[in-house]
Amino acid sequence: MNFNQIMDRISLVLEKETNERPYAKDIAKALDMSSTQFSNAKARNSIPYEKIAEFCAIKKINMNWVLFGQNIGMLKDEYEEYCRIKMPDSIKAGAGGGAFNEESDDYTYLTIDPIYRDMLGIQRTDEIEAIRVIGNSMEDTLAEGSIILVNRKKTEPVDGSIFVVNTPGGVFVKRIGINPAGGIDLKSDNKDFETVTIHADELSVIGRVIGALEKI
Fold first, then answer.
1. Residue 85 pairs with which residues in a beta bridge?
2. Which of 61, 78, 124, 207 has a CB 3.0–4.6 Å from the CB of 150, allowing a cystine?
3. Please, what are the domains in the chain?
4. 67-80 pLDDT tens trace
């Protein structure tokens, strides 16, 4: 039994109620636990069964679904329609200056319409992460503050496609160019920004951008 998977299902219940993505502190509060207790339980993969049982009783949620993910009647109909994408709190991709990110296990979830999921060809949501863009070097393609969906299984650079990459200068979202003279070109769609060429050994590809969400 996995602590994170159980908390993911509790997170889904809370998000359904508030229409907002809960943070770890919100889940801890819902379980009547301190943030320290929650973090320690997570580190030890220690399941707080009593707290979960109380939560399920209050929310009128079947405990088998929370603990084991069993599809149970109404719960199946109510929750399986949603497509949830993991969104790490600490990771942002710089469209302009590089965004340095501290390592963190904290994440929330982005809920998207299954129609959009199918349109993007997403077959496994566990391969996709949502990352927020900072900077304007990818405008008009990607606006500052938009949320991009990144397929972390697609790490082979493709000329002309947009990727999130990690470099000595930070994490960037850029259009990739295969430089015939050697190296990888990091291109900005905003023509006010110059192309930067970096040696392939200095770059690791986090994933390919397959879609974006932004305010209109």
1. 110
2. 207
3. 3-76 (1.10.260), 84-213 (2.10.109.10)
4. 887 654 444 444 45
